[in-house]
Amino acid sequence: MLENSGLVGYAQEVLKETDQSCFVQTAKQLHVRIQKATESLKTFHPSADPCFDEFVLDTSKEETLLKEMCFGGVPDPPLIDLSHSKVYNEASICWRLPDDHLPTDHHILECRKLGGPSQSPSLEGSEDCGVWRATDKVYGSSAGVHDLEPDSLYAFRVRSCRNSMFSPYSPEVSFHTPPAPIFNFLFSDKCGFSPERLILNSRRDTVESVAGMAFLLAAERLQTGSYIGLDYIIGDTGISQGRHYWAFKVEPYSYMVKVGVASDTKLIEWFHNPRDTSSPRYDHDSGHDSGSEDACYELSQPFTLITLGMGKLIIPKASSSSSVSNANVSSGDPGNRVLPMPQHLGICLDYDAHRVYFYDANTMRCLFERQVDCSGTMFPAFGLMGSGKVQLEEFINAKKLTF
Questions:
Q1: Is the pLDDT of residue 229 over 80?
Q2: Which InterPro entries match (predicted)?
Q3: Which of 1-10, 25-34, 59-68, 229-238 is least confident?
Q4: In terms of pLDDT, which residue wins out, 239 or 98?
């Protein structure tokens, strides 16, 4: 190829020749040399072999790495766990991630207020309503929120973050805050407490009713039947002003439990009533539909109790000073006063307004309300008969995240 490049240079010089005789003589020789060079190029072969048949490249490791790479950078949205989330003195919101999720860096919980007391339209249009407020980064699967307004509806949602990429929001869930500030108390193991038939746990937030050894020993003399009275236990703190709310759980297997509020004077009367001579009749209601007791309910009394048992809740007979969420309860059919027992029951005492309210604590639906005489110190009261168990709602002491 270098020889041929020299031939080209020689041809360029020949073309510059101005003498005709010299040009003809050299052009003939140049023509012959070009023919020979053209023929030699037809049989030209490079010295290097361009074939890679014997070369083998192993890419198995790289293929495996490529298959393991995940190009879906957006994490899947978490789901708020309603079975473990609740709102009491604070809000405790728990969530779970999909089963096949990849590790996430952190989560962001958001909350907004949907409505104020009694879902007033004027409050719903306020500045605080409808605005999502985000917490700081949460590195676990739950978060606590405090400073929520009472008797208000709040919506919650959460999303995950991985490598600075956020997942879509979880479906919104809503919770209704209690209608009043939470009343913090424990069961009293002093005033009228019967350790023979009532068993308190060490934390004094759970009480269980049992027969008692004395009753079992006396039962061998019984052949036809025996009267079993109510064993009362109260809270260790009383209420003398303001509006307060507390919640608890009555086990569905409970034989009979009466819950509500009672004044200190009424409790003294109950606790000093001898067990062996007390009448099996309710103070003002024999349970018969004779109508003789109805007039007593028209008067404000220093106590109000409702009955739970066998997985049912019994609404007391209606009066002019009481109201219930179900209009059919006011009818004469006793079956209309029987409701399914809520998983958690809430009581709200408005001392200044002389009224007591009973709620389904999970939905904050008012089941029953009645006027009550708050002339003295009012105490949460619980009466148990037969086998039964009552557990106070536990305070939420999670890490506080303020909205």
A1: no
A2: B30.2/SPRY, B30.2/SPRY_sf, ConA-like_dom_sf, COS_domain, E3_ligase_FN3/SPRY, FN3_dom, FN3_sf, Ig-like_fold
A3: 1-10
A4: 239
**Domain covering 79-177: architecture:** Sandwich (2.60)
Quick one: three-class SS letters along the chain?
CHHHHHHHHHHHHHHCCCCHHHHHHHHHHHHHHHHHHHHHHHCCCCCCCCCCCCCCCCCHHHHHHHHHCCCCCCCCCCEECCCCCEECCCEEEEEECCCCCCCCCEEEEEEEEEECHHHCHHHHCCCCECCCEECCCECCCEEEEECCCCCCEEEEEEEEEECCEECCCCCCEEEECCCCCECCCCECCCCCCCCCCEEECCCCCEEEECCCHHHHHHHHHCCCCCCCCCEEEEECCCECCCEEEEEEEECCCCCEEEEEEEEHHHHHHHHCCCCCCCCCCCCCCCCCCCCCCHHHHHCCCCEEEEEEECCEEECCCCCCCEEECCHHHHCCCHHHHEEECCCCEEEEEECCCCEEEEEECCCCEEEEEEECCCCCCEEEEEEEECCEEEEECCCCCCCEEEC
Query: Mean pLDDT across the stretch 126-140?
Result: 80
229 or 275, greater pLDDT: 229
Distance (Å, rounded) from C-alpha 111 to C-alpha 172?
9
Report the CATH architecture of 198-220+228-276+295-392.
Sandwich (2.60)
Q: Which residues contact 64 (CB under 8 A, 6 or more apart)?
A: none
What residue segments make up the domains of the chain, in order of their start? 1-30, 79-177, 198-220+228-276+295-392
Query: Dihedral angle at the C-alpha atoms of 87, 91, 97, 103, nearest 10 degrees?
Result: -170
CA distance readout (Å), 355 to 112, 142, 157, 202, 351: 31, 36, 36, 33, 7
Q: Is the pLDDT of residue 44 over 50?
A: yes
Q: Are 81 and 52 in contact (CB under 8 A)?
A: no
- The pLDDT tens digits for 323-350 are 554 444 555 567 778 999 999 999 999 9
Alpha-carbon torsion 191, 260, 389, 310, what sign?
positive
Prediction pTM value: 0.71
